[in-house]
Amino acid sequence: MAIMSNSTAVQMMGRDPVVPYESAPISTPSTISTLTGTEPTTNKETRLDPETADIIPNNTTLDTPLQLVTNALDITDDPSESPYTFRAFIIGLGLSSFGAVIAEIFYFKPQTVGVQPIFLIIAAFCLGETSVLIPRWGPLGRFLNPGPFSQKEHVFIVIMASSAAGSALGTEQLAVQSLYYGKQPGAVSAIFMLFSSQCIGYGLLGVMRKTFIYPTKFVWPTSLPLASLFQSMHLNKDLAMKRMRLFWYLCLGVMIWEIVPQYVFPLTVGISVFCLANQNSAVFTHLFGGTNGNEGMGLFSWSMDWQYIGTTQFVLPLNTLVNQLVGYVGCVILTVAAYYFNLWNAWDYPFLAQALFTSNGTVYNQTEILDKNNEVDTGALSAYGLPMFATSNTLSLLTMNMGTTAAVMHIFLWNWNDVKLFFATFAPQTIKAHLISATTPLQHWKISGRTNDQPSPTPKPFPGTEGDPHFAAMSAYKDAPSWWYHGVLILATAIGLECCYEQETGLPWWAFFTALGLAWFLTAIFACMCGITGFYFPPATAIQMIGAYLVPRRPVANMMFTLYGSNALMQAIAMLADLKLAQYAKLPPRATFAAQMVGTCVGAVLNWVTMNSIVESQRGVLVSVEGTSVWSGQNVQTYNAQAVAWGGAGNEMFGRDGIYWMVPMGLLFGLVAPIPFWIGHKFFPKLRLDYFNTFIICTWLGVLSVGINSSLMAYFVFGFLAQGYIRRYRPLLFAKWNLIVAAGIAGGCSLIVFILTFAVFGGSGTERLFPAWWGNNNQGNVDRCLYMNGD
């Protein structure tokens, strides 16, 4: 399966990246300086400088976040550059429109493919460099072509486009309402709901963003490869030129190679020696198969398809990779054991599946249990029977719940010093200060100590930023005032509440505000976790379960609760990643805010237009079980099925007497999971129990429940090679090339998948299959495991 493609990144080495500063293990002088806030030594003899590799001692390390961000990224800046150019807005709006439409189209495809930031970076660079050819004759020429295409313009464009280039979760809600409930909101109501659900996350965390962006410890790994690519495209240095050449070589090479596994020789997506040796064993299919979707665990399969291997294994910290490996092994053991011990009547359903089933294994028809108001009729539910899950899906729901509360407990035990400033924001005296601040909108950053009428003194360090040159450079720019974010929050909340009632979703006002409060709280937890470890998984299951408890028997209300509880969290995380990228690339905060808001609003409108067109023209296909080779309603069906299960029959299925009562108990299991490790570390620190992150482990215990799983072996091999060997023993090589290698592979995959989707995979309306031969078995599992036909 593809491993969190939106989490590609670099982070600090795994010397305990998720514990408070003062309790982190200390082993080198540079580590001490970073964790205690003192200025690190940066003289010629000790600082890692890729341009002067011949004078770097062999014992140089990249163990700390400060070492990483100062040696892997350039720290120079030109404050005279402006991102506010006509071509930046035009290219940004053009790519935003393109990305929003393509992302929504792909959402209704049999294989969902996202529009990757690497693709947008390349497209923006080509368009920006082309605009330089416009003659600069007269004022009009200089307006259209203000000079060389700058890094700030480039970053501004990409943040705007990436904010738009996704399928808004709200379109999923609208599609379900239209397809399954016969209630299509009007255009104005639908678009405003998308505005609200997409922007409310910005408002929720925007006023507290400094807590998770400024401190150096919050590296935000997803932003590092992108920042490195921007610098390689724009910095006029020999090393940057070499990196750019390597990027294009890798990009082209991967594009050529990916035609093989994607089209010509699909067996290379996952080569299973076990399945090739025994092609008639159901056990081998479940355990070793994984090249087809929902086939098996993919154990010991070797993938040669970079689309599924991804690039996160190159750049996530070793600590994260180790915890993922523990969770992966546990997932294989738990899933196989649960199935073969017939837990939750596993033998009545497919080994891996996401749909709802009746007790006899057929697909569940929800229309049998809904009344004319789209609420569950208890009599009809009793007569037709409860919906059932495949055992693997049930385990996934259980472990995702565990991961949610494990993250909460882990952060409070290990990282309280990192998040206490966030919660202190809501102390009475702090709220009063915010209100006073909001009355003075045109002020500079508080950390800089400036006013509009005074010169800037030496910036006052924000806690955790001591010695960080990227943070220091940003003091040259005005921050986006807090009242901007306050305004977004108030406006988005008002619109969202109005949409809940105008669209007759059945979600009461108090439940709506509960969803927002839940999103705000979980954002603090997951922002801290993602900013440090580079790993994030949306806790949608836990949010949906809470919504089902608060508002039972109302599937549409459950979807709306999930939309505002989960989507607000995801948007806040995306916003923070963009802000960190802006800090690395020295894009002014106000420009970042403008790019995010413009891109998000443009994307919401075009998402709705595209979704509405597809739903109206492909209605029959989208509600069918199998779909076609061009269109599929699998994502909409899954979203609706979860709402029916949780919102419609939650008490019967997940209550004390329900068959799946253990799923909500996962929240309790997750709260307990980190405690033994924390207590053990306090009494036996030499055991290094602080190395285990139960959030990552618990989440990965259910990670194989869906999709193509043959890529995991390659994922870990490359990951441990990059982070366990090259970073530790070849830090110069790592600092110079690792980020650009990750970007080159990701860029090549993004481009070729886009091309193949329209050229041969039916994106243009006609599918052109490669001629059948032994390496592309179209009649069964590609890896030659026994084809179970969904049984």
Q: What does this molecule look like?
A:
This protein has 791 residues and is an all-alpha fold. Helices cover 59% and strands 0% of the residues. The protein has 33 helices and no strands. The protein has helices at residues 29-36, 65-71, 86-107, 117-131, 138-144, 151-164, 169-180, 187-206, 210-213, 224-234, 238-264, 273-277, 282-288, 306-309, 312-315, 318-340, 378-384, 391-414, 416-424, 428-438, 469-473, 482-502, 509-533, 540-550, 555-585, 589-617, 619-623, 634-654, 662-672, 674-683, 694-700, 712-729, 731-759. It is globular and about 75 Å long. The model is unreliable at 1-58 and 441-457 (pLDDT under 50).
Fill in the keyword field for this structure.
791 residues; globular; mainly alpha; disordered N terminus; 33 helices
**Strand residues, percent:** under 5%
* Percentage of residues assigned to helices: 55-70%
Describe the global form.
globular
Q: How many H/I helical runs?
A: 33
Q: What's the total number of strands?
A: 0
Main beta-sheet strand count, sense and barrel state: none
| Computed CA radius of gyration, to the nearest angstrom | 26 Å
End-to-end distance, in Å?
21 Å
Low-confidence stretches: 1-58, 441-457
Q: From the helix content, strand content and strand pairing, which structural class follows? A: mainly alpha
Organism: Podospora appendiculata
Subcellular location: Membrane
Protein name: OPT superfamily oligopeptide transporter
Transmembrane segments: 88-108, 114-134, 155-175, 187-207, 246-264, 325-344, 395-416, 483-501, 513-537, 557-579, 591-609, 659-679, 691-717, 737-761
